[in-house]
Protein 1
Amino acid sequence: MPVPPPREPGRYSVALVCLGNICRSPTAQVVLADRVAVHSAGTGDWHVGDPMDARAAATLSAAGYDPSRHRARVYDASWADAHDLVMAMDHQNLADLGGRSERVGLFRDLDPVGTGEDVPDPYYGGADGFADVLTMVERTSDALVAALAGALDDRPAGSSA
């Protein structure tokens, strides 16, 4: 998935979406928070107002991130117009968002290892699943930020600084 241009020059806004907004999308939000304007939400409403899953939070904390401010919320369709890019964590989340478009795709579309694959939901598994998700999220976040550097570059192609 090519990264679409920003709606505002010099600023890029990403929305991340999973099922309950307590594991995958908030993990990605925490990892990306210092690098882009980012929000996360779930397609389901049963965790609204809850903090991140304790296992996801512990995995992030152990890696040096601060997951403490997250509270789950539900995706609102207006986010598609308010964000430059909306990224679903799996194919079902993508279907719940109405499918692919220029600004809507899968988070792992930019993963150099698993392009177009799902970020597996670790909720019903053990600690290893949360660590695996964090590894995927960090790798894909690095690729996303690298792609965004080009999207935010206002210079014409081929020019030098």
Protein 2
Amino acid sequence: MLAGRSKFLIGGLLVLAAVIYLIVSSMSANAEYFLTVEELQAQQQELAGKNLRISGAVVGDTIQYDAESLTLTFEVAHVPGNNAEIEAQGGLSSVLHEAVMDPTRARLQVAYIGPKPDLLQNEAQAIMTGHLGEDGVFYADELLLKCPTKYEEAVPEQVNGN
């Protein structure tokens, strides 16, 4: 009777170990690192080919779209990833504006295949999921845009810098 219980206990532990292994391995395989443009450029070698999520300010005069091939390319400028730092610099609208206007800020070329989003414009915040190619271009699979000018009336102290 004791031998039957030990076999049952060992079998249960093996099944539990297998389930834990499957959970951990699937989580690490699908993990996405959320980075700023500067962080991505600093770690290019280690992060090439990995699933990444990055954020930056759209530089309007770099937007190019081919409606036939649905190919969209543009640059994003570095914006801080820390919300407290963004608030200290006058809010999101101010930070996005400064990022686009400062030619010394780190910039990243982005390529996306799909319809051109309506909110894609100068100084929009782009949050992209994809991977960094060996050519240094970020190939976005998903593209989310936030346009702070849409919310200017809701947060006038950010827009006016007060």
Protein 3
Amino acid sequence: MRDFAPIALTGMNPMVLLVPPQMPHTTKELIAKLKAEPGKWSYGSSGNGTTNHLAGELFKKKIGVDVVHVPYRGSAPALQDLLAGRLAFMFDSFGTSLEYIKAGKLQALGVMAEKRSVADPDVPTMAEAGVPDFLGATWNVVVAPTGTPAPIIDKLNVAVNKALKDPTTAERLKRAGIDGVDDSTPASTAAFIASEIAKWRDVVKLAGATVD
């Protein structure tokens, strides 16, 4: 917020609740299982303080379950243990998990977004799955150094939004599991970044999370 001047928000990569095939097939059933067996299950993340770690902690607090966090050095090793059934669940982005979902190796129970993702419209939102007000995503923005003249910021904003409307760009974003953003402005981008900082700061305090 101090060092950068926001230009445009370019994409949202929503987190998705993933479980191996042998686990329950709905979020409500998963929650019931976790509550019935407190302390038995664990969930994975790509490391302490990462987005999927914080999503897992927010999930635990929201539904009131006792689940152990297991941090890994990246999503890949965590996903391997999830695929092997050594973890109960994991939150990760569509970008890294979509191939496993499409192959039937993992179940996607809900996406942390207000609407279903273009990456896989068959996956319900977390609200549809029974957990309202549960949103989370990694996101992409274009920024310039603080002090960049406003006319340049505005010109770049127009160019970025034009590029995002290109069908080829939209298709590439979709294949990467990224939901495109329509006509963001420098002001709306700044407001979004500020809201994300406030939201996740509260989650960090609630969970006592630290970074590796």
